[in-house]
């Protein structure tokens, strides 16, 4: 079953707001971003796990929240599910005693500057050569679902499932989000930029020669 966030090409959601906004529209959004980032070491969560946490919000909640409200709601669910805090602590606003191992993993004020400037690489070295070459035609999986976990995170959007595209670029091997989001290891795979004719994805593209480029992992693809 697809989740509410996978809404590309769906009718009825209104026009896309292309207004240019600053990265943060309010001061509380900067704190929401900082809080989410600082909390990740507590549960050992990856960026893919964080995305999955937001995707699991109830559809009505997801649609009602702003961008950083989704961040906070997803984080809250992850903290409770991971045993970092309890629902009672959230309701009361009074924290209990943190487990000793989480005390050791917490982000201290002295470490913030280094953590904020550190890039987390997701590229990996793999032994197997890429299965597809630039310019080659590929077909995406018909079922755009996580094959490891039912209802799990995936980066194959539903609108691009079961379609033929053209490999535009090979990005090297990267951590597979479908596995990393669920603590199943990195399972790195080759990653490709795949171009699709907009008319194959959308019922009424603005220009008939438009293309949509999607970054897709090797296991999402097969030869025609």
From TrEMBL:
Pfam families xrefs = NHase_beta_C, NHase_beta_N
Instruction: Write down the superkingdom of origin.
Output: Bacteria
What is this protein's name? Nitrile hydratase subunit beta
Q: What does this protein do?
A: NHase catalyzes the hydration of various nitrile compounds to the corresponding amides.
Where would I find the Nitrile hydratase beta subunit domain in this sequence?
122-222
Q: What class of enzyme is it?
A: lyase
Nitrile hydratase beta subunit-like N-terminal domain ranges (all copies):
1-98
**Keywords per UniProt:** Lyase
Instruction: Give the catalysed reaction(s), semicolon-separated.
Output: an aliphatic primary amide = an aliphatic nitrile + H2O
Annotated EC: 4.2.1.84
- Which SUPFAM superfamilies does this entry report, sorted A to Z? Electron transport accessory proteins
Q: Which GO terms describe its molecular function?
A: nitrile hydratase activity; transition metal ion binding
Q: Which family does it belong to?
A: Belongs to the nitrile hydratase subunit beta family.
